[in-house]
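Co-fold these.
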Amino acid sequence: MIGTEKIQTMKENTLFFAAMYLEHNHIYGMCDGLIQGGGILKSVYDPDKEKARSLAARFPGAKAVESEEEILKDPEILLVAAAAVPCERCQVGIRCMEAGKDYFTDKGPFTALEQLELARKKVEETGRKYMVYYSERLHSECSVYAGQLVKAGAIGRVLSVTGLGPHRLGNPEERPEWFYEKARYGGIICDIGSHQVEQFLYFTGCEDAKIESARTANYGHPQYPELEDYGDVMLTGDNGSAGYFRVDWFTPDGLSVWGDGRTLILGTEGYIELRKTVNVAADDPQGDLLILVDKEGEKKISCRGTTGYPFFGQLIRDCLDRTETAMTQAHVFKAAQIALQCQEAADRRK
Amino acid sequence: MIGTEKIQTMKENTLFFAAMYLEHNHIYGMCDGLIQGGGILKSVYDPDKEKARSLAARFPGAKAVESEEEILKDPEILLVAAAAVPCERCQVGIRCMEAGKDYFTDKGPFTALEQLELARKKVEETGRKYMVYYSERLHSECSVYAGQLVKAGAIGRVLSVTGLGPHRLGNPEERPEWFYEKARYGGIICDIGSHQVEQFLYFTGCEDAKIESARTANYGHPQYPELEDYGDVMLTGDNGSAGYFRVDWFTPDGLSVWGDGRTLILGTEGYIELRKTVNVAADDPQGDLLILVDKEGEKKISCRGTTGYPFFGQLIRDCLDRTETAMTQAHVFKAAQIALQCQEAADRRK
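Predicted complex below.
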């Protein structure tokens, strides 16, 4: 029989979380990650009850609830994961933090710099966390391994990071309305570009970056005039490293995955190429492929099933222990800020 | 027995060329290309007689001569190929054109915009050609095939071209002195970046481009303070297409070739990736690999031994027929101009 003391310790080491606002399917990945990291999904809320029930049904023990309030008032819930419409993500976060919860939002975390400032203040005021699901690094084993290799000095000093983030639009009519409204989704750099900014800062070890140039376009979707289907950005890190990324919505139907995402990391002593989702047109097409070229040779390293996704377990410990091991708040906000500033710079060109 | 008339026709259809100033090994590729295209290497000159003899020995019928003058005064020679020290390429070309020869120089064709202006005027004045060996496209079968695919509309409208042009420095002491002197080699964008500018213009079908940002660095070679070991550039084409390229001297010793050059061409209907020199870390490592992803699927196309290098045969016909089928003079000069302007923009940041 377990004594009261033991139960108390277990409770102290258990993180219950909730999921709400299920506008983007990323919420499934977010819940998966947190559960694999040791969290327990307790409650799910969405204005669309069917959507909430459907998510809850996938995770045994989770229960669809009737309102946001039920979650915010539940003292057992320490963390709220959410994938609201992008322009609403900040306000959801502020309500969570005011209710004493940590917040874990889908990317892009904001659609305007003013929102970032509100969030920054609320974090200071409440001591809560405003974390972001930068899935293209955090939920990608080859990216996790690349981080470990870079940290271990496998390619020397990182000089340049080039990121390619193509995405499939799919059947345009299956996308929600907000996907085509600039004020609501924020722009392509602010949205899928935010992954790329985060990766640049992370792999180069920068704390800040200067925007050299940022541009966006609607090259192929005149029927959706507010959709940006292309964006690219050139950055210089505060340690002198060089960055470039491009993002787009032009993944062809024939690609076996949603997007042939790559990251190329050039160092003084070697380079790394990540083929995140697919080794395109190869006999061994599996993604999560890391290619390392150094002074010894060319190495092809399949990362699937190796590193796991340490971010989530670390985030859970951070929520319980009030530490910052998964990712610092400063890094989260800086990545968001640069993406927003790039978006503004691109907007000003129009 | 061949009659006089036939011999006359053969002569009219034969292009004799010379090679001089053998400062870069590209001259071997230039001669190979011209000979495979039907040209006949007649004379070779270099101030270093051993160098001239050594090149001549590789091509039966070619003869090392004692002076540049011997070549310029030879009425049978219509074209001069040269790979002089970059800062001298323009003057060599002007002397060739003044002597009534077409000129085919290694890239980068100039180290300063003033040289370009001199060459432009001399071309107008003499009606001769100032052609450039942009080998990373012209002497690359996968690049030739990419050009054919793009022209045929295989990926729709070209939106964006991303070029990676890493190069191996090798034993730094085996490089000539001019390699480390900025005034003589011109800078990394002006040198190996010129390939990239040319490819951007070619694949996007632009006639001009705006420089968004250009930067260079010496990240890892403080012992050679004037060496730029890194450069990258963001361009916008006059048809709205987007371009980025990076070039560097950081190819690790373990790579099986001199540089893992790539070109990524994104179109509205698909994309192409060129792995020019190596399919890095793959079981089938051969370069000249073209990957085409379109609405039908992912295709891996080995281009080695398929297209050949039509540029050279076309150039020879152009010299004989006074046409512009291989490459227009305007394109050659525009690519050079943009590379020089990028270099200047990068220089101004310092």
